[in-house]
């Protein structure tokens, strides 16, 4: 089987406390595949959620790629693989700590993915980049946009953003700080696929692990004009279920 191209920061952060272990930006696997992506018309990067090891990350890219192909999207789809399989995430008694560590690692990865995007765009300025994020992957995307917003030349650098079961908070698209970032760094649109039936987000909301998930009931307040949302009914919180109910792309 040909390997799935991915940008990775595996082993860069401590899975038990989120501490930074390596400061180099990222590594590419397989490197030669990324060279081939230069001058592509578009590139879509899939970012997985919590509790995904290397194999889980690869599986999510394959799911995204296969679904997008079915929807007629023919451009390259690659993955961003990060340390999200935090210690104890599968045990209820450690869930809160594991999620907090995961959120901290996801936030830190904004710099890593942001650096890749800047590097890639400098070698392939005309490639449109789309970001897809599931669950905690939405936090990686948000932090990436925040990192990119620090430089004026990054305005509109991301073509579009797609959230699925997003675990970031519902006030983000209308907040003064993040609304402005979404509006300026994303060129075309931000699409949030939200599901009031998502059992994991209901649980996170009830336990107050995330106060009001964007992926549960959509945005509150007055979201920026590039933000749009779609009500979906996936079977459960898994990305496979969200991919199944995805009706169009890009």
UniProtKB/TrEMBL annotation:
What are the protein's UniProt keywords? Answer: Membrane, Transmembrane, Transmembrane helix
Query: What InterPro entries does the record point to?
Result: AB_hydrolase_fold (IPR029058), DUF726 (IPR007941)
Gene Ontology terms: cellular component: membrane
Its subcellular locations are: Membrane
Topology with regard to the membrane?
Multi-pass membrane protein
Just give the chief location class: membrane
Query: Does Membrane show up as a keyword for this record?
Result: yes
Provide an example Pfam family for this protein. DUF726
* Metal-binding among keywords: no
Please give the Gene3D superfamilies that the UniProt record associates with this protein.
Answer: alpha/beta hydrolase
**Could you tell me what this protein is called?**
DUF726 domain-containing protein
């Amino acid at each position: 089987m040909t390997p799935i191209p991915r940008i990775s920061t595996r082993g860069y952060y401590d899975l038990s406390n989120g501490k930074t272990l390596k400061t180099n930006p990222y590594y590419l696997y397989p490197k030669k595949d990324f060279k081939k992506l230069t001058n592509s018309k578009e590139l879509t990067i899939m970012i997985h959620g919590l509790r995904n090891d290397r194999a889980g990350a690869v599986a999510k890219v394959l799911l995204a790629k296969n679904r997008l192909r079915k929807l007629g999207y023919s451009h390259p789809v690659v993955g961003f693989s990060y340390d999200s399989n935090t210690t104890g995430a599968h045990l209820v008694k450690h869930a809160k700590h594991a999620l907090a560590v995961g959120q901290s690692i996801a936030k830190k990865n904004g710099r890593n993915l942001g650096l890749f995007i800047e590097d890639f765009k400098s070698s392939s300025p005309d490639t449109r980049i789309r970001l897809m994020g599931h669950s905690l992957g939405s936090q990686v995307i948000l932090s990436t946009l925040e990192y990119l917003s620090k430089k004026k030349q990054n305005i509109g650098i991301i073509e579009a953003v797609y959230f699925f079961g997003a675990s970031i908070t519902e006030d983000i698209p209308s907040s003064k700080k993040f609304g402005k970032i979404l509006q300026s760094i994303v060129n075309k649109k931000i699409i949030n696929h939200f599901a009031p039936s998502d059992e994991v987000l209901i649980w996170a909301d009830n336990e107050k692990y995330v106060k009001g998930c964007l992926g549960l009931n959509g945005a509150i307040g007055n979201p920026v004009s590039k933000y749009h949302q779609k009500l979906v009914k996936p079977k459960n919180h898994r990305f496979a279920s969200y991919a199944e109910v995805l009706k169009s792309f890009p």
